[in-house]
Design goal:
4 helices; 5 strands; 34% helix; Hypothetical Protein Ychn, Chain: A; alpha/beta; 5-stranded parallel β-sheet
Length: 121
């Protein structure tokens, strides 16, 4: 049975290891046949920018860019908090393939939808 899993990330550069771990778990869940969606908020919006994940690794050696690339190949939607990005001067043109800006209301709707299982990192 395919489950809808929503991964909400708030960790930015200062907690890159934890953010990488979240992408690792999301990738594993997608490989196991789950419908995975990523929503980046606060400082985590930078992971949705082109080139930002280059060279980022967890303490166990997992490579963030490779994990994000796998999610993109599996067509997992990546949503970037519109207001968070605007505050940080990040535009739609700065985003990786498959990422799109989304309002906070879209996140609230997904969180309230009982068909989603929500994870926050």
């Amino acid at each position: 049975m395919q489950r809808k899993l929503l991964f909400i990330l708030t960790k930015g550069f200062e907690k890159a290891g934890g953010a990488t771990r979240a992408f690792e778990l999301a990738t594993l869940a997608a490989k196991n046949g789950n419908a995975v969606e990523i929503f980046l908020v606060d400082d985590a919006i930078h992971w949705g920018q082109l080139g930002i994940s280059e060279g980022i690794r967890s303490s166990t050696g997992d490579n963030m860019k490779e994990l994000i690339d796998e999610l993109v190949k599996m067509k997992a939607p990546v949503y970037v908090c519109e207001a968070c990005a605007e505050k940080r001067l990040v535009t739609e043109d700065d985003l990786i393939f498959n990422a799109e800006m989304a309002p906070s209301s879209a996140l609230a709707e997904k969180m309230a939808d009982e068909t989603y299982k929500v994870f926050t990192f």
